[in-house]
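Structure first, sequence second, as always.
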């Protein structure tokens, strides 16, 4: 039977590169591109069909920052498919980054220069926004929207005798120090991206605790340092062509560190590698890293995450409570709308 694969944030960057690699590996799979912007998704679909004319590529409108969008999209998925083999949770944002130039130039001449480039640690802070649902935008987009999607898709993910994989695109910028269980939306901090990615590491562990017996397995990857629109957004006033000028420097750095994958194709290595693994054989406490050697060889390596089961289960419980609150609020809003306008 053909495998069914859904990828969020599939219209560009690592998500699109993954889709291209998946179709090259298995042209018979059913691929669903779940994207916020349908126009861009259609362009991505056209590009994929140009190289894979017989491929089955469907589109799904999904904005993970919107609760209504997530619920509507999940309902549509359950109408279209009676099962889901792979759910790649790749969509994410890093909004309005603030660049600390002083820290940057100081870091250039320190032993932390490679870490600084690879993770942005010490030089980036972000100003978060609030969604129409009243949530912190980074938390909603990167974590809660995906959590709600998994919850809604349990019927097509959890099927006896047919294991499924949920695969999160995390980051090496997922630091325990940025995350606070009592402020999981990161309303009080300045590193919402790092917080959301660390939370996704915790949530992946919790999903394995609760769902492995039902055939659902969760994994986490880090794509390495990749040149994508998210990267360009780190320095909004930095002309895109200057990133190209810096590429030779990045190639040189890659001789000393394998985390500079640089291209979306390379960054998708771990995502693609997991597609070919038996989920039962994977380590729930590992993060799978896309790596590229100085000679350009791509490979995947697992590294233990800085997570523990108690904190992961506590986060899962808090997310369930938030989900319950959100659903009640949504029902109350729907009740208050006159039947004639629904």
């Amino acid at each position: 039977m053909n495998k069914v694969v859904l990828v969020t944030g599939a219209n560009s960057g690592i998500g699109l590169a993954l889709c291209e690699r998946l179709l090259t590996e298995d042209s018979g799979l059913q691929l669903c591109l779940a994207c916020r912007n349908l126009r861009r998704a259609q362009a991505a679909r056209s590009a994929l069909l140009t190289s894979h004319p017989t491929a089955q590529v469907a589109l799904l409108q999904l904005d993970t920052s919107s609760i209504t969008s997530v619920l509507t999209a999940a309902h549509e998925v359950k109408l279209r498919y009676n099962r889901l083999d792979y759910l790649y949770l790749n969509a994410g944002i890093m909004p309005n980054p603030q660049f600390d130039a002083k820290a940057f130039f100081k870091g250039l001449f320190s032993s932390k220069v490679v870490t600084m480039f690879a993770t942005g640690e010490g030089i980036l802070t972000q100003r978060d926004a609030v969604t129409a649902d009243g949530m912190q935008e980074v938390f909603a987009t990167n974590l809660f929207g995906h959590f709600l999607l998994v919850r809604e898709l349990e019927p097509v993910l959890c099927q006896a005798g047919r294991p499924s994989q949920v695969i999160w695109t995390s980051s090496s910028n997922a630091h325990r120090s940025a995350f606070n269980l009592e402020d999981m939306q990161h309303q009080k901090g300045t590193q919402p991206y790092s917080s959301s990615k660390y939370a996704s590491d915790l949530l992946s562990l919790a999903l394995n605790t609760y769902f492995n017996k039902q055939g659902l397995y969760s994994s986490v990857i880090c794509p390495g340092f990749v040149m994508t629109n998210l990267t360009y957004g780190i320095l909004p006033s930095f002309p895109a062509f200057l990133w190209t000028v810096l590429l030779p420097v990045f190639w040189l750095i890659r001789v000393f560190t394998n985390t500079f994958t640089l291209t979306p194709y390379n960054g998708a290595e771990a995502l693609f590698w997991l597609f070919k693994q038996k989920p039962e054989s994977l380590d729930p406490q590992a993060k799978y890293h896309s790596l590229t050697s100085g000679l350009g060889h791509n490979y995947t390596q697992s590294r233990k995450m800085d997570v523990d089961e108690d904190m992961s289960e506590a986060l899962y419980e808090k997310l369930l409570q938030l989900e319950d609150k959100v659903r009640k609020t949504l029902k109350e809003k729907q009740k208050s709308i006159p039947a004639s306008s629904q």
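Margin note: The chain has a mean pLDDT of 89.
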